[in-house]
User: Fold these one by one.
Assistant:
Number 1:
Amino acid sequence: MRVSVDADVCYGSGECAFRAPAVFGFADGYGFVLPGRAENGTDAGTGRDGEPGQDAGSGRDGESVDDELLRDIAERCPSQAIRIDGKRVTD
Ligand code: SF4
């Protein structure tokens, strides 16, 4: 599962970073996916700690964010800026 934020759509509620700080950051009024957190538990592309194929967000610092939570965060993003596998998530 791959997660991303469309910065052109995000209006900066900060909710994603609040709910899953292991995956999302917030800076300059916009949410973003932390480096190395976009793809299934890999850490900055090095594979350190995380195993590809596990939940996005598992890996660095041992924190785990499961796919269901990420999908829920994407559904609740007030601007629907969060993409899962490149697609907008709606409930
Ligand atoms: S929850 Fe959505 S609108 Fe809010 S900061 Fe994150 S991506 Fe942007």
Note: The pocket of iron/sulfur cluster is lined by residues 5, 10-16, 31, 77-79, 81-82 (CB under 6 Å).
Number 2:
Amino acid sequence: MHMCVYCIDPDGKLANHPEHIYSFSSTGDIILVFPNGDRFEMPDMVLHYVFDHQWLPPQEFIVDVLTFEAESVETERFQTKGLVVSKPIDMKIGYLQGEFPTGNVTEEFKVRLVKIIEKAAADYPWMVAPKKKEKSNGMA
Ligand SMILES: [Zn+2]
């Protein structure tokens, strides 16, 4: 289990971010294969980075997400400490550390990315990270 380093205070405690939508933990990586052959490997908490930290993915990835329907995107996934996938990876994205590019992505991109990640999660039922956090209303 990998925790988002941007959600941890300098003293090591989890920062309280009630405004965040997606889970800040990752259980592994996912590979998205687009019909044009582009393959992107990323942590399975990319939705957290995009929605909650305004991470701006590489332009190539944004274009592919906007170009291809979720149904046409193939997914591969492996546990971080499990199987090793030996196929070549075109691009590793979303392994954020230190400063990372931020910016606004379009609502269309967000909707499409969610669909693709949800398809991946359906393909791989043990993939839990992208789920939305449960609201904790009323907690002090
Ligand atoms: Zn975070």
Note: Residues 2-123 form one domain.
